[in-house]
Prior knowledge:
Elements: E1 9-11, E2 14-16, E3 23-27, H1 35-48, E4 52-57, H2 60-72, E5 77-81, H3 85-93, E6 98-101, H4 109-122, E7 126-131, H5 137-140, H6 153-171, E8 177-182, H7 186-197, E9 205-206, H8 214-230, E10 236-238, H9 245-258, E11 267-270, H10 281-292, H11 295-298, E12 306-310, H12 316-322, E13 325-329, E14 333-338, E15 341-347, H13 351-360
Parallel strand pairs: 3-4, 3-10, 4-5, 5-6, 6-7, 7-8, 9-10, 11-12, 12-13
Antiparallel strand pairs: 1-2, 13-14, 14-15
Bound molecules: iron/sulfur cluster (SF4).
Iron/sulfur cluster binds at residues 271-274, 276-277, 310-312, 314-316.
Amino acid sequence: MEKINTKQIRVGDVRIGGGAPVSIQSMTKTDTRDVSATVRQIKELEKAGCEIIRVAVKDFQAAEAIKDIKRKIKIPLVADIHFDYRLALIAIEMGADKIRLNPGNIYIEEEIREVVKSAKKRKIPIRVGANSGSIPVQLRKLPNGATCEVGQGKEGKMVKSVLDYIKILERMDFYDIIVSLKASDVTSTVEAYRLFSKRSKYPLHLGVTAAGPVSTGTVKSSIGIGALLLDGIGDTIRVSLTGDPSEEVIAGKNILQALNLRNFGPEIISCPTCGRCQVDLQKIAERIQLRITNSERRTTKIAGLKVAIMGCEVNGPGEAKEADIGIACGKGSGVIFKKGKIVKRVKEKDITRELLKNITT
Length: 361
Ligand code: SF4
């Protein structure tokens, strides 16, 4: 896949676009005014691998809480602002590393000018974050089949709203911009980002908004974000799930790893098992997954290792030989391969231990 080049923007110490690794974001689900609960959740997300965190700023107290939250966390913090530009001013003053503005609900030029003035002073970027659920009212009024100058339907309206907003920011000599165009359905999301990336070099924050509960939301996000990344589009990602935000980070990591864009740990190749399998392969694969994907191990030399866990002699030896480390199981036992060579035969009860030993040495 060929990456489409974008302008590079810094959010705290994380670079977005311009060839930087695609970063992983999440958003807290706590009441931002509750500093200790919010900090606790951010720390959990940091541990899971979150690289940028966004918090909802729904009132002045939440904006002010950013100061205390920032003191206790390591990763850059983004303030999510809707309706009231004054919340952005306070969030910036309190140390937010980026502001997200929604063109659908903060659109008065004088208000935007105030935020831009403050963001310039603190040298922080603004994300212009369009959502299909909050398209600016003047565009919303257009009939659905109407064609904006950029395209039809809600995708065209979202892209137009962002391009118009960018023009306003650029007229104010502000170019520290990141863009998102999220719809709650996969095809509109993909279409909107594709339309936009043909027209602008600002870096893109990808996501399918309101994707749903963990299982279906992960599928929708993986398809939407994955399709765009395969097109070379996208500089930072957020998987939106109704569930534990750590799941968003894990899903984000898995998407990037599956596309070979980032390397967070060993890759497990395991067969689905069938009637030929004569060991408890599911248990073995789950145990290995759990042991090698915890955060401490992700950073060690085992990142990038391919580990094959296969149920029988049909595809087992072939996959196990091709992997860095592999096991091809038989009746109550398995043969371990390392770099294509047989290391030893082990009993089923010893498979997990022996595999782990070979993975970590
Ligand atoms: S490797 Fe063997 S056990 Fe696993 S799915 Fe294929 S045939 Fe079945």
